[in-house]
Design a protein that fits this description.
alpha/beta; three-stranded antiparallel sheet; 15 strands; globular
Length: about 400
């Protein structure tokens, strides 16, 4: 069975020859570029410069030999970048002040401040950090006065500017076709013009937009209508061209949960988000019936699982069962045969960073043995593998999953 067949059968709740696994299918199932060289070395593979494709989280594209060594089944198309084959014209060298000799997307510009802080756009990485960040995490904080909201006229203009152009569609289609022809692995596709901006952390960020949802729901509905129409137009232009080349598509990346509860009540999601996300999923399934739609949402979102299913998503990630009270068994019981789970392999905030290798192996076996029942489960960590994680734990995590 090929990796693609394994993923496809699993996502259709059919038996496969073994558990499918993922590393870096999308930007919340990846590995830090600082951790990646150590993993390559521990696997006994030739050294190479990591390709940093996510410049904020500093995530590395995994090479094909690393994917094979860990028994993973997914390759990526992220914008116009892929790890399916070399793209030398898409990358340039940068060494992050000698801390990390690496490759970054061509055209990326950095400035270095006197104390060694590296700045890129509005984000900064101080010398002791492993990621780039911005003040308040890039989200404004308002303690006084009216909550600002976007100008809908400006939003409509931005929407018009974000529609796919004919040449762009041709370039994306050519890339997707080449990726498909290069590999028998499953293809995960992500493009922000389809993902859009329908999310609780959208305009103004987590400190602002949830308040607007509660205080000005009619405004939010109008905003979401504009964004939905734009995304559906892009879906109908692009998906018929690439539907035969991709298997999974990122539809939204949002964070509905805190460490213990939902950010807002389920009713907010049900009235202001579900109808619009359902339209996006329905449009995608109409244009590409075999392509599965993927939702990323961190935190304690167990209480919203029914609404997520009703939104039409095929896959939910990262299965953060350690947030809130529900267990991975509760997650599986509530999602069984209704929506596929992608992630949840180990507690990434406690067991993976703080436990021993044996602790990691034990928890992975327990979680996977439950989550893989009745299929509809793809293994990976709960969110990204961070810079400080020892390669032995990463290897133990993936190899234990295969034995569960």
């Amino acid at each position: 069975m090929t990796s693609r067949e394994r993923i496809v059968r699993t996502l259709n709740f059919q038996d496969s020859d073994r558990l499918p696994k993922d590393l870096s299918g999308m930007r919340s199932t990846g590995i830090s570029a600082f951790a990646y060289p150590n993993l390559v070395k521990a696997l006994g593979l030739p050294p190479r410069l990591p390709k940093v494709y996510d410049l904020g989280q500093m995530l590395a594209f995994p090479d094909l030999d690393v994917i094979d060594a860990l028994g993973c089944d997914v390759i990526v198309i992220d914008g116009m970048l892929t790890n399916a084959f070399p793209q030398p014209d898409k990358w340039q060298k940068y060494d992050f002040n000698g801390r990390l000799p690496a490759m970054v997307p061509a055209g990326t510009e950095y400035t270095v401040e006197k104390d060694g802080t590296i700045a890129q756009g509005g984000n900064r990485m101080v010398p002791e950090s492993y990621v780039f960040d911005a003040e308040h995490g890039g989200q404004s904080v308002y303690l006084d006065g009216d909550i600002p909201k976007p100008d809908l006229k400006e939003v409509r203009k931005q929407v018009a500017d974000c529609l796919f152009k004919d040449e762009e569609i041709r370039e994306i289609t050519a890339l997707c076709r080449k990726v498909r022809e290069s590999s028998d692995r499953a293809v995960f596709f992500a493009n922000w013009k389809i993902c859009g901006h329908i999310g609780i952390c959208a305009y103004g960020g987590m400190g602002v937009f949830p308040i607007l949802c509660m205080t000005e729901p009619e405004f939010v509905k109008e905003l979401h209508e504009i964004q939905t129409e734009r995304a559906i137009r892009n879906i109908r232009m692009l998906l018929p061209e690439i539907k035969d080349y991709i298997d999974v598509m990122l539809m939204t990346a949002d964070d509905w949960g805190t460490q213990s509860s939902l950010i807002v009540a389920p009713e907010i999601y049900d009235t202001l988000f579900r109808p619009y996300l359902r339209r996006l999923n329905d449009a995608s399934h109409a244009c590409a019936p075999k392509t599965k739609t993927f939702m990323h949402s961190c935190g304690a979102i167990y209480d919203a699982l029914d609404i997520v299913v009703e939104s039409g998503f095929d896959i939910l990630n990262p299965v953060q069962w350690c947030a809130g009270k529900p267990t991975f068994k509760d997650w599986k019981d509530k999602s069984r045969k209704r929506i596929c789970l992608w992630g949840g392999g180990v507690n990434s905030q406690a067991t993976l960073p703080l436990g021993t290798v044996k602790d990691v192996e034990k928890e992975v076996r327990e979680a996977v043995s439950c989550l893989k029942n009745d299929n509809g489960y793809v293994f990976c960590n709960i969110h990204n593998i961070l810079a400080e994680i020892a390669p032995e734990k990463v290897i133990a995590m993936y190899r234990s999953a295969g034995k569960a």
